[in-house]
Amino acid sequence: MASKKASPVEWRSECPISSGLDILGDKWSLLIVRDLITYGTRTYSEFSESPERISTNILADRLKLLTALGIIERVDADRSARNNAFQLTKSGKELRKVLEALGRWSYANMRDLHPDIVSID
User: Fold this and answer.
1) Do 10 and 4 form a contact (C-beta atoms < 8 A)?
2) Count H helices, E strands: the chain?
3) pLDDT digits (tens, 9 = 90+) for 17-57
4) Which of 15, 53, 59, 66 has its CA 20 to 30 A from that of 28?
5) Which residues partner with 121 through β-bridges?
6) What radius of gyration, in Å, describes the C-alpha atoms of the chain?
7) Does the model's pTM come out above 0.85?
8) Could you give the CA distance from residue 97 to residue 105 in angstroms, rounded to a whole number?
9) Strand, helix or coil at 38?
10) Residue 32 to residue 43: CA distance in whole angstroms
11) pLDDT tens string 61-108
């Protein structure tokens, strides 16, 4: 019998959409992934300077969670999180299509509510 790896997430159900939302359903996780897709690598300080103004405690929690889940990784595994850059893993890079689709949907459907929204294309 194979042993299950301990998960840093409490899964709500077996549904893959629900499971994805369990780890990416908050706005901060996807914005961290967005910044890594856009800029390549980012440091803790660079993330904290984003226009969305993520608080330091939430940023630290999300970086820890996304690292534990294998979505991001430290560039130098031996350095502390605050003095290190982060990059996407293979799993994290696969979220590009998801974010691009969300951006296209938002631009096409949210312009009446948010006239300043910009296209990602």
Assistant:
1) no
2) 6, 3
3) 888 888 888 889 999 999 999 999 999 989 988 888 899 99
4) 15
5) none
6) 16
7) no
8) 12
9) helix
10) 11
11) 999 999 999 999 999 877 766 678 999 999 999 999 999 999 999 999
